Amino acid sequence: MTLTEPSPATRAQRKLSTAKAMVEAISQEMERDQDVFVLGEDVGAYGGIFSSTTGLLDKFGPERIIDTPISETAFIGTAIGAAVEGMRPIVELMFVDFFGVCMDQIYNHMAKIHFESGGNVKVPMVLATAVGGGYSDGAQHSQCLWGTFAHLPGMKVVVPSNPADAKGLMTSAIRDDNPVVFLFHKGIMGLPWMAKNRRSIDHVPDGEHVVPIGEASVARPGSDVTIVTLSLSVHHALDVAEELSPQGIDCEVIDLRSLVPLDTEAILESVGRTGRLLVVDEDYLSFGLSGEVIARVVERDPTVLRGPAARVAVPDVPIPYARPLEYAVLPTPSRIRQAVLELVNA
Amino acid sequence: MTLTEPSPATRAQRKLSTAKAMVEAISQEMERDQDVFVLGEDVGAYGGIFSSTTGLLDKFGPERIIDTPISETAFIGTAIGAAVEGMRPIVELMFVDFFGVCMDQIYNHMAKIHFESGGNVKVPMVLATAVGGGYSDGAQHSQCLWGTFAHLPGMKVVVPSNPADAKGLMTSAIRDDNPVVFLFHKGIMGLPWMAKNRRSIDHVPDGEHVVPIGEASVARPGSDVTIVTLSLSVHHALDVAEELSPQGIDCEVIDLRSLVPLDTEAILESVGRTGRLLVVDEDYLSFGLSGEVIARVVERDPTVLRGPAARVAVPDVPIPYARPLEYAVLPTPSRIRQAVLELVNA
Amino acid sequence: MQPQDRLDLYRTMVLIRTYEEAILREYHADKKPVFDIGAGLVPGEMHLSAGQEPVAAGVCAHLTTDDAVTATHRPHHFAVAHGVDLEKMTAEIFGRVTGLGKGRGGHMHLFDPATHFSCSGIIAEGYPPALGQALAFRRRGSDRVAVAVTGEGAANQGAFHESLNLAALWKLPVVFIVEDNDWGISVPRSASTCVTSNAVRAAGYGIPGARVEDNSVEAVHEVAGEAITRARAGEGPSLIEVHTLRLWGHFEGDPQSYRSDLEGVPGKDPLPTFEQELRAAGVLDDPSVSAVAAQARDRVEAAIEFAKRSPEPEPATALDFVFASA
Amino acid sequence: MQPQDRLDLYRTMVLIRTYEEAILREYHADKKPVFDIGAGLVPGEMHLSAGQEPVAAGVCAHLTTDDAVTATHRPHHFAVAHGVDLEKMTAEIFGRVTGLGKGRGGHMHLFDPATHFSCSGIIAEGYPPALGQALAFRRRGSDRVAVAVTGEGAANQGAFHESLNLAALWKLPVVFIVEDNDWGISVPRSASTCVTSNAVRAAGYGIPGARVEDNSVEAVHEVAGEAITRARAGEGPSLIEVHTLRLWGHFEGDPQSYRSDLEGVPGKDPLPTFEQELRAAGVLDDPSVSAVAAQARDRVEAAIEFAKRSPEPEPATALDFVFASA
Ligand SMILES: Cc1ncc(C[n+]2csc(CCOP(=O)(O)OP(=O)(O)O)c2C)c(N)n1
Ligand SMILES: Cc1ncc(C[n+]2csc(CCOP(=O)(O)OP(=O)(O)O)c2C)c(N)n1
Ligand SMILES: [Mg+2]
Ligand SMILES: [Mg+2]
């Protein structure tokens, strides 16, 4: 959807939505490199269902901003073949939930060709896709699924939480010689037609802005509890941290930003200081990110933990449609708050 | 492939290969229930590439043992629709590695219809599929991927390691009112044309034999180290345990048998006694089973661990073709042994 | 066609339109002043079917509730035409415990075992399960059929091809419907599909293929009748494409700025056209038109009322129904 | 056809057959007495292409190594015909560091940037990347083409349909080849495909479709020539199905007990047939036949020797090449 947004303030102080920051990165890279192009469903005249390509068609024309049929296997495969021949496609899968119709191209081809070729063939491409729930879109349009991608080797997996990182990670993803899966949460895009957190429109550096893939960031330093999280949940965690701060509970919020590579050192460093670990993950609970983060700590040294590690994630249930049910399973601030309190009171 | 095998001994003492045990379960259930039928590629005259359906065509005819085109989306969907109408299909995906061409039917339909319908529509079916490497079949035919299925809610996921469990779990899977993913490792099938461990042909109870889904088994009791594992790796773990026993290292081997539901209590009970945890997993290391098992312990009580938990899994690399490379990444006995020794010497 | 049959088609079309208008009203009722997709009594994406009534009405007139229908992300017209309980369906759309899915599914995931109706939000992936329903029907010796629906955009998805081949190969009693409303969200047919008629693709499966060009409910009725008769007789599947009309946006909130044809759209509305035809033929007059409208309104408003009256699910039940209990 | 061109086709076919026979020999050499798929110098599944030489030879005669070929799980004949380096290819099949993929890929995963050759073990999934190669070729203003190969079994996979539609829609310079060897492992064509010719499916994409019925390399050569010329001229894709022959098992170790036609198979071998034709036409005689055979043998045995001489990869390098370094 493409309702109008307030235009950004002065350039120095300008704030952008995450969507616009993504578009800015793509646009700058397209100007810089003729081999970069975009393809996907409704990326042209519509500008991307979640505004991830708004304005690019006008700027670059239909040869470089290409609407596709609803044939994800064919057009993701097209991106792969073009990348193999040295182009740098950005291909959009409208919702990550649709991976099931095209996963073979993604994980058996995009992710493995470089390895199978002994490094002789590079596949420099970005697979951009929307994730996340919270607006009652039901079980087939609300998932995060980053754990599924991160489990399968050969693709980098990045997940920004804010406009500046979205720009910087997109720039890195486009320039990376590897396939990069770029998962953007609808709730951080700053869309005018969806409830959004206040940080989804924020300062974004002008010009070239690169955020290296594989480095977590400390979204908030703290000393009592380490909250390891990513994407929209970063904001819930920050909100909870601010709320608990007056009570003397000082949460550190680690924004992973990248699952593959995973910044294990950043996690270990923080948990080493706080001794308490909470993983907040909007993906499904089991066999995914939250377990991995805990394992990375415990296979190094379980004694850094003063008590049990905790997880707030979607408890292995498809995302329900009805709002009271959906908000019962999402990692909401109230669930995060409760988990933090249990950790510090344990 | 269907080379001839030695015929089983007397019925009382009979031993069966895992493949034959699976077939026996299917056959018995097909006799018991007219609604059970089998479909998939090469399940008829060929008898299943890994002998999972050998002899069934002769016994039940082409109306109930159905060869399909190479159209996994269409024929798995067919199984789903038939299950929705009250039949109990067993559908075979020849190699789990092919899930990418049909995952949407599996995880967005098979696994979610019951939930989305508020429990009004049941989907009683078995998705049987071959997993695992070790015979140089390369990056697209050697994966385990059970973590991928277990991460996505709505399907039970079972993984037998031996003939008796294969029969018992298949019986349970067919009778279950839920979709059950049944992953059989090629290396445990007891195939005459593939190197096999000695326990892949073993005693199997005659007649009805049910192994409940969701219960791990203690494949070997022990007091020093808990090795949590499944499928072919159970045998490697048992071999290592036997080998280390004379050195006074007493390993307990837990055969998970089922990932969903996961028998957390069995893991906790064992680790609570041994204080040492090693997870051995032929799936990829990160964001999968091995992290989940560790997290289940640590979110309950990290102090049960006397030292860091350890993992032996495929280190986030596509399965290489060349034997020396493949065996460098598989969870071989030597890697397991070394991990056990590091745990006890820590 | 007999006057009564024509009247029945009209009734169905009016019921569908009345339903969609009511959902439209309820959907937007509490999303102002700034549209927020997740807000209000009916949140989430909403794909309405106004303009496509002829397809559902024409096809479902040949079905009983023993036959199966698998629909798409735009499912209401087929659900209504196939006889899904309006109250339970509406309650589901409102996310209530009395809904078809007890609030778990929502508007793209309507499952009604009573009428063998289902739908899916994933493009073309509703086709494959229909094959299994057809297989089960045949195996049980009945002459029941399964109708599977997609849009013209979806006809370029792999599942479409696989399903047609399998159904043709096994001569399954399936009728495949393609609703060509010219658009797949913002992508015009010309930018998604390399042929102007999907009927030509039927030859690739050795099955009958037809395209109905004018969104005429009677033409749909006739062509679908032949296909369904054929399927019931064990002669296998058929493919029918109907050139229909997306009267509104792809989903609610769609600005449709990409849509060049927008101005001409209201004039192509199939409802007034059909109404005029029936008036001219003496099948309808002012009183009967009013009666049909009133009846439809009453049923629809009762369903809306039922939904609103029904309780929302308890958060404590959020983990129910992942698995069936033994 | 000119005698020289016929001779070239023959040479290619002989080279392919010689290659496959050598791999067959090496594959089984150290798997006795009990066949163990994972044992020996060449372990793993092995899908050989004997009998299907006419397809690869006839098609690739029109290509240069600037053109792309994406092949299947049964890739050797196309790799050889397209000019992939025999030594590197063989080393890959033997899992050596000197191989195309440094031993990482194996026989189903041969990637050769020098000839734009690739293949995939997943049915029909080699088609989509070919579209991207074609797109890149066109975007760079060249007249290079991409040839994409599948079997007749694979033509019922969704990727087939999606690829044909997309290529036709965008008029991409692709030629789609379907090798109909009657079997998909143990499933005969009649049990997988609802039509007797995939050429009829071309109409569903508005592109030319042809079926070559007799495994004749010259017929393939002719039809492929037209399609490739068309593609180079910017007129879009074509679909060509060749009725060919699986001379041996699906893979090595396949007992083929399901195969009713087995007895008649040797008589259909296209190599002696073509040889006889060329002898009758005066293009070949005893000395030239021997010379071609000797040349092929020398090249193939040199490649096998190269592979055997090459070192195996070090276990310590097992984690290399997952990612390209920045
Ligand atoms: C596999 C998949 N890809 C993309 C989408 C997103 N999507 C939802 S509806 C739609 C357009 C569908 O067009 P069409 O099939 O013509 O149906 P219509 O909406 O016109 O009824 C798309 C692309 C989806 N739901 N599933
Ligand atoms: C998606 C997928 N499904 C199944 C298989 C297993 N498989 C490998 S080859 C083959 C038969 C292929 O038949 P065809 O396309 O006719 O090629 P042929 O082997 O005859 O050359 C099958 C089913 C696979 N590799 N990929
Ligand atoms: Mg449409
Ligand atoms: Mg074949």
UniProtKB/TrEMBL annotation, chains A, B:
Keywords noted in UniProt? Oxidoreductase, Thiamine pyrophosphate
Looking up SUPFAM superfamilies in the UniProt record yields:
Thiamin diphosphate-binding fold (THDP-binding), TK C-terminal domain-like
Query: Which cofactor(s) are needed, names only?
Result: thiamine diphosphate
- List, alphabetically, the Pfam families matched: Transket_pyr (PF02779), Transketolase_C (PF02780)
* TM regions (residue ranges): none
Top-rank taxon, per record = Bacteria
Q: Which residues form the Transketolase-like pyrimidine-binding domain?
A: 16-191
**Statement: the UniProt record of this protein carries the keyword Endoplasmic reticulum:** no
- Recorded protein name is Alpha-ketoacid dehydrogenase subunit beta
- Organism whose genome encodes this protein: Saccharopolyspora oryzae
From TrEMBL, chains C, D:
Which SUPFAM superfamilies has this protein been placed in?
Thiamin diphosphate-binding fold (THDP-binding)
Which InterPro entries does the entry mention? DH_E1, PDH_E1_Alpha_Subunit, THDP-binding
Q: Does the keyword Oxidoreductase belong to this entry?
A: yes
Signal peptide (UniProt feature, chain positions): none
Report domain Dehydrogenase E1 component positions.
13-315
What cofactors does this protein use? thiamine diphosphate
What are the UniProt keywords, alphabetically?
Oxidoreductase, Thiamine pyrophosphate
Q: Read off the PANTHER family from this record.
A: PYRUVATE DEHYDROGENASE E1 COMPONENT SUBUNIT ALPHA, PYRUVATE DEHYDROGENASE E1 COMPONENT, ALPHA SUBUNIT BACTERIAL AND ORGANELLAR
The protein's name: Thiamine pyrophosphate-dependent dehydrogenase E1 component subunit alpha
